[in-house]
Design brief:
The chain has helices at 11-16, 18-31, 63-102, 105-161, 166-194, 199-216, 234-247, and strands at residues 2-3, 6-7, 37-42, 45-51. It is mostly helical. The chain has a domain at 1-58. The strands form two sheets. It has a two-stranded antiparallel sheet. It has a two-stranded antiparallel sheet with strand order 3-4. A hairpin with a 2-residue loop joins strand 3 and strand 4.
């Protein structure tokens, strides 16, 4: 059961799973340095184990750890009580239905009242359990915010040591955002081409591209000169030029 970056194990958990816990505990001591493990003792007996989830030293056990352990224990007990009430509520409903079908209306009425009492107890237990879970969540959030604050302070000190200003960081972050945005545009443009299956799809894609280009670039219509009706073919023109060139006589100047 992970709580607030630690593992907690209550007395009842140890009693219910003693063989497993002893084996797990031996393995834990072999694999985890002692700096990452703390025992939480209340009333001169072992009630909890605090283990770091990261390779860092566990802070000394504080009053907050004791209070958190009490909250976790209370949460477990309430959850167990809620499970018992759920079972009794369900049994009372089934017995009420069975009694009603058998014609014993008095017993059916008694079981209905009993199920209502169990339902009210379930409601109160659920509300209290939700409040305790909310408190535990707030403690976890406060611890996370504390770590974030410490990380920010370390970052500020590092920037001061390296003479890096916030403006420079913002400029670099803006450049990174622009690069990421440009890459996303490229990826978005490549997606239609990657989804093509055959040549027909490729032709269709290029037809769309051609239509888009025609819409973007204004079409300029150039009127071709009207050719005379008696215009000679290219072969006839070449033959005529060759004949005329052969008739030319070059004379010395």
């Amino acid at each position: 059961m992970g709580k607030l970056g630690t593992f907690w194990a209550g007395n009842k958990t140890l009693l219910r799973h003693a063989p497993f816990f002893l084996v797990h505990y031996v393995i834990l001591l072999k694999q985890v340095p002692t700096s990452m493990l703390h025992f939480v003792q209340l009333d001169s007996c072992l009630q909890g184990v605090k283990v770091a989830l990261t390779a860092s030293q566990v802070p000394a056990v504080s009053k907050l750890d004791h209070d958190t352990l009490h909250l976790v224990w209370t949460e477990e007990k309430l959850q167990e009580q809620l499970d018992v009430l759920d079972r009794r509520w369900e049994i009372s409903r089934r017995r009420a239905l069975a009694s009603f079908k058998s014609g014993d209306k008095l017993a059916a009425y008694r079981y209905v009242r009993q199920s209502k009492l169990f339902s009210q107890s379930r409601s109160r237990c659920t509300q209290l359990l939700e409040r305790i879970e909310e408190v535990i969540s707030l403690i976890a959030s406060a611890e996370s915010n504390k770590k974030v604050y410490e990380a920010i302070q370390i970052g500020i000190l590092a920037m001061k040591d390296n003479t890096v200003s916030i403006d420079e960081v913002n400029i670099h972050m803006k450049e990174i955002d622009e690069l990421v945005a440009a890459q996303r545009e490229v990826d978005a443009a490549l997606v239609p081409l990657q989804s093509l299956d055959d040549e027909g799809d490729i032709d269709e894609e290029f037809s769309k591209l051609e239509a888009e280009l025609q819409d973007d670039v204004p079409h300029i219509h150039v009127q071709e000169p009207m050719a005379p009706s008696n215009e000679e073919s290219p072969d006839e023109v070449v033959e005529s030029l060759s004949h005329n060139m052969s008739r030319i006589r070059l004379e010395p100047i």
